[in-house]
Design a protein that fits this description.
about 250 residues; alpha/beta; TIM Barrel; 8-stranded parallel β-barrel; binds 2-phosphoglycolic acid
């Protein structure tokens, strides 16, 4: 059975103290969420250990991890380091990492394997640029990202992942994909997973929508049969709006 998930991606926001306060507020409000949605906060590395102490119902994730195991990689944070904080999830392949830090499909494939080896659940992001959508290439782009980043995994390992579809043109822009656009491409993504790993694995994979998802539009997006929740940026920085999204199933 696939899970309903609302994951916050805090990005490079909040000091440690602000982050702990936000986590405490999210945890307090999470008690009022009566559906079975999984609520996750993905925080900066510096916050993981302290945020972990402030949450119980809410689960913890990182926003990235290194593509190497350990050693002379100044400034990097490994998957085992992330796991040692008590985090259970890690965002991999966010479009900001792909675009600004030149993370290729090959690098992301390594990160996914290291995350899985450390019992972290990757939240693997895919999504097209505006130019790619305008050229009608969006289905091909997400299929290629899936194939190059993930499709050498075993079915068992693939079954551990969460996928987040985030059209780059909708991230932080206030321009959300329409409900119909989200459903259309989520269905294509699920079909691509089914073609590779079979219908059971595809049916059990949670596919989240991300990109200007907020407390006003979440319910309409989540009502789609192939949209299993959201990866939330801006609206995750306010506990009330984030928890309203978690109640939108
Ligand atoms: P946004 O970000 O909700 O602020 O558009 C989503 C994301 O980048 O994960």
């Amino acid at each position: 059975m696939r899970k309903k998930i609302v994951a916050g991606n805090w990005k490079m926001n909040t000091t440690l103290q602000e982050g702990v306060k936000l986590a405490q507020e999210v945890e307090a409000l999470a008690a009022s969420v009566s559906n079975d949605a999984l609520i996750i906060v993905c925080t900066p590395f510096t916050h993981l250990t302290e945020v972990k102490k402030s949450i119980k119902k809410v689960k913890l994730g990182a926003e990235n991890c290194a593509a190497e195991v350990s050693g002379a990689y100044t400034g990097e944070v490994s998957a085992s380091m992330v796991a040692s904080t008590g985090a259970e999830y890690v965002i991999i392949g966010h479009s900001e990492r792909r675009a600004y830090y030149h993370e290729t499909d090959e690098i992301l494939a390594k990160k996914v394997k290291l995350a899985l080896a450390n019992n972290l659940t990757p939240i693997f992001c895919i999504g097209e640029l505006l130019s790619e959508r305008e050229a009608g290439k969006h289905f091909d782009v997400v299929k290629s990202q899936l194939e190059k980043g993930l499709f050498d995994l075993s079915a068992e390992d693939f079954g551990k992942l969460v996928i987040a579809y985030e059209p780059v043109w909708a991230i932080g822009t206030g321009k959300t994909a329409t409900s119909a656009q989200a459903q259309e491409i989520h269905k294509v993504i699920r079909e691509a997973i089914a073609a590779k790993y079979g219908k059971t694995v595809a049916d059990n994979t949670s596919i989240l929508y991300g990109g200007s998802c907020n407390d006003k539009n979440a319910a309409e997006l989540f009502a789609n049969p192939d949209v299993d929740g959201g990866l939330i940026g801006g609206a995750a920085l306010k506990a009330e709006s984030f928890i309203t999204i978690a109640k939108s199933f």
